[in-house]
Amino acid sequence: MQTTTKTPVSSRNKWKKTAYLLVISVVLLALGLAAMFTLGTSSIRFDTAYDNGADLSPYYFEPLAEGEAYSALQKAWLAIARNRMVPIFAAIVVFVLFVALNRELLYSQNVAPYVFVLPFILTFLVFFLYPLISTIMMSFQDIKGSGTTWIGLKNYENMFANKNFWIAVKNSMRYMVWTCAILIPMPLVLAYLLNSKMMPQKFADIFKTISYMPVLCSVVVAGIIFRMMFSELDGAMMNQIRASFGLAPIAWLKGESTSMFAMVLLCMWRWTGMNILYYMAGLKSIPGDLYEAAEIDGANEFQKFWNVILPLLKPTAIYVLTISIYAGLSMFTESYMVFGNNNSPKNYGLTIVGYLYRYGFEKVDKFGFASAVGLVLLAGAMIITVIQLIATGTIKIGKNKED
């Protein structure tokens, strides 16, 4: 006699009876996050004003008239905003209780994908979406110790009218172009030579180890070493090299082209080994049968490299190019350490991130302006990356027409 199980039905009924816990959890989480988003960078000042019974109108509601008090709903919201972390933690506790009462959901094939994706969603919301929204809001504000004022597009107008901003953009773009032009093809050729049969294995292993060692070096230490190498003193390494060719010493870090050369050389020294590693991984994934087929067809080394290696390494090259674009536009520490500070001669070493750092941390009451610079940097990096992905065929626009 065949029996039927009632577990799915009973589980469904149990889930429906406890669904209110899930709703409560979502509401509490929404209240806590809403308080965090609306306060933004004013949270500490709001907490101080709330605890001291000061005026709360700069943060919520209109100023109170003499003898007037907040309504019950307004008081409740102010209490939630002051203790905004309590609803968030309460939401987590209620959600855990809901899961404990419905343990069978953990074994459901329909729920399992959401459980695995949940950590990424939470991380994305807390560490990307919330900071991004806060930065967007701050970019339209004048943030000072005394309070926050909404000024609209004033920060963007001042930024685009500042000549130092365009110097920083030019320096970052030049640095990005030079590093991509060198660190994309050169490691590829080196990786191909190291992977070829003509290269002795022992020599290839030694070269790969030596080329990767700079990646492990701290950028602070590397920047100090390069600052001494490019010093204007006669005994500096680069001036000694010039002296060996009968040339006079120069002040490397006080010239536009020579200072850029120093920063690009530091980047090459640090990241050539890493890009070789990326390309080596791509080369190892190419089946050996393709090499043999090319040799049977009479292809020489250059023809195999051009017709076999390059097409199959396209995904790897696109990845290396993408991270190189972001690394080039976000460069800051290298320039800071090479020049010893963020104020290089005639701003030859000033980058967009350095410009952001100058107004966000070195100057007082310019955090809203720095937020606008950060958003422009993010938008520029995204636009350049999308153009690169379209140009390389990774992103295809339009529908393919069938013949």
Describe the model.
This protein has about 400 residues and is mainly alpha-helical. The chain folds into two domains: about 5-140, no CATH class; about 160-390, MetI-like fold. The protein is about 70% helix and about 0% strand. A two-stranded antiparallel sheet has the order 1-2. The chain is flat.
Distance from first to last alpha carbon: 61 Å
CATH superfamily of the largest domain: MetI-like
CATH classification, class level of the largest domain: Mainly Alpha
Q: Please trace the helix and strand order, writing H or E for each element.
A: HHHHHHEEHHHHHHHHHHHHH
- The second-level CATH architecture of the largest domain is Orthogonal Bundle
User: Helical stretch count?
Assistant: 19
Structural class call reads: mainly alpha
CATH topology group of the largest domain: MetI-like fold
Sheet with the most strands: spatial strand order: 1-2
Main sheet? 2 strands, antiparallel
Strand residue percentage: under 5%
Radius of gyration: 29 Å
Provide the domain count. 2
Residue-averaged pLDDT, rounded? 86
Instruction: Note poorly predicted spans.
Output: 1-7
